[in-house]
Design brief:
By secondary structure, the chain is an alpha+beta fold. The chain has eight helices and four strands, in the order αααβββααααβα. The chain has a four-stranded antiparallel sheet with strand order 1-2-3-4.
């Protein structure tokens, strides 16, 4: 499992983040993309050993474009020099939640899980309601020793427990959240040996699975808003 073409391409793109360079290096882009899709295919098969719900996915359909939307951003560089993918039972949609990977040299790579999107009010409400009624199960998952060794629940959070929820609830701190996700940083050194990286990633994805499963139970029936 080679990752050299990906890393070199993304490193070069971050140093030449302009349309001229991008269009002049289509061949490198294609080769790096092929390598990333091969990595995703390997991850699908390996994750599929403990979560068969994701086995039907095609790598091409799980990846995100390098082109950035710069309309509302101070940073006007046209590309995000990162290969990203979300592997879930329904592909790359944010719900149901699944296994997220970002390869971005320069110390920005990470493995993720859970609900990153905090703009879906219905999803936030469904998770809050579920935590309200299934707080002990939530605590068991996030305080499992193996989980705590690698992960801490993150997310956009309000200052106070929102109206309609018990301020004294044992999980009140998590009811403030609008999104609930996990991030595990990956060093550039860890990307050098592809085989070792896959083994480590699969191990961490398996540890986060109960957290994902919990959120997916909470989000059962959620409909993505129509565009």
């Amino acid at each position: 499992m080679d990752m050299n073409l990906m890393i070199k391409y993304l490193t070069d793109l971050s140093e030449n983040n302009n349309r001229e360079w991008y269009h002049a290096h289509k061949a490198e882009n294609k080769a790096a993309n092929a390598e990333f899709e091969e990595l995703i295919q390997t991850l699908i098969l390996r994750i599929g050993e403990f979560d068969s719900s994701i086995l039907h996915n095609q790598p091409k359909e799980l990846t995100f474009k390098l082109v950035r939307d710069t309309r509302f951003s101070h940073d006007k560089s046209p590309y995000n020099p990162a290969f990203r993918a979300h592997i879930s039972s329904r592909g790359k949609l944010p719900v149901p939640v699944g296994y997220y990977l970002m390869v971005k040299p320069g110390g920005h790579s990470f493995l993720g899980g859970g609900l990153f999107a905090d703009m879906f009010k219905d999803a936030t409400k469904m998770v809050r309601d579920y935590i309200t009624g299934h707080g002990e199960e939530f605590e068991e998952i996030i305080h499992a020793p193996e989980f705590q060794k690698y992960f801490k629940v993150q997310g956009t959070s309000l200052k106070n427990v929102p109206a309609g929820y018990d301020k004294e609830h044992p999980q009140a701190e998590y009811l403030k959240f609008k999104s609930w996700y996990l991030e595990y940083p990956i060093s550039d050194e860890a990307l050098v040996d592809g085989e070792a990286f896959v083994t480590e990633a699969v191990k961490l994805f398996e540890i986060m699975k109960p957290f994902n499963d919990y959120l997916n139970k909470a989000l059962d029936g959620f409909q993505m808003p129509a565009r």
